[in-house]
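Morning. Coffee machine broken again, so started the prediction first thing and wrote up yesterday's gels while waiting. Chain of 63 residues, entered below exactly as on the submission form.
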Amino acid sequence: LIDILPYLDVDGNGKVDALTDGLMIMRKLLGQTGSAITTNAMGTGATRNALDIEAYIQTLKPP
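Came back before lunch.
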């Protein structure tokens, strides 16, 4: 798990946080899309927008 930890920073703010990154990953896994994934969940200093985050999370899922 330590090896994949950096990849879980889905908002790109340099920190992995269950209440931001984890929440957005869960929302995507539950089928939400676009801004529904990121609403009230983006971490301070996020460098990705809603569409970028959705696309990034998609790259984490197995084919």
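The two ends are 20 Å apart (CA to CA). Going to sketch it on the whiteboard this afternoon.
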